[in-house]
Specification:
Layout (H helix, E strand, L loop, with lengths): L9 H22 L1 H30 L6 H4 L6 E5 L24 E3 L1 H5 L13 E3 L5 E5 L3 E5 L5 E5 L10 E3 L1
Parallel strand pairs: 1-2
Antiparallel strand pairs: 1-5, 3-4, 5-6, 6-7
């Protein structure tokens, strides 16, 4: 009686497992998921900047060239943080992490009226939009992670507060 065992030897299995492990690690390094996630977050930020700017300009066109009152109040007064009306404590906490030079960090620009008027479904919030205070705590409040500047001649510029994979600031102007 001959006993023929069909299957793999232990050495063959170990070699296959080692090869699969090496291939998985090479693919993982080649795909670099951390970079891909950072690029995806930057793409979201770019889309949100365009969405905010389009809503602001559409409101202005529909109202015969007149901006929201919150935007009129800041025209020619520097860069301001954008909020959706939920911030009760002010915007000065943002300036610590914002890569944009916020020149008017004590006042916010409330764009909640764009939501109530139907120009936005919600004021977008950047992936890193949570306020972190100087003591390291979070207030539970959300800022947007975006800034707004309106020049004296009416040019509106929306910028992100942070970018991860781009070497230039994410912004749009009209």
């Amino acid at each position: 009686m001959s006993s023929l065992h069909k299957g793999f030897t232990l050495i063959e299995l170990l070699i296959v497992i080692a090869i699969v492990g090496i291939l998985v690690s090479v693919v993982f390094v080649a795909l670099d998921p951390a970079t891909r996630f950072a690029e995806a977050r930057d793409a979201i930020r770019q889309n949100d900047v365009q969405e905010l700017l389009s809503a602001i300009k559409l409101y202005q066109v529909d109202h015969e060239g007149v901006h929201l009152s919150s935007i009129q109040n800041i025209q020619g007064n520097g860069v301001h943080m954008i909020v959706d009306g939920a911030m009760a404590t002010g915007c000065n906490a943002y300036n610590d992490y914002c890569t944009t030079n916020v020149s008017a960090n004590s006042t916010c620009v409330n764009l909640a009226q764009l939501v109530t008027a139907g120009y936005l479904e919600a004021v977008p919030i950047s992936p890193a939009g949570e306020v972190v205070w100087d003591d390291g705590s979070t207030s539970g409040e959300k800022g947007t992670g975006f800034t707004l500047e309106v020049s004296n001649d009416g040019l509106v510029t929306v910028r992100t507060c942070e970018e991860e994979e781009t070497s230039t600031e994410i912004q749009a102007s009209r």
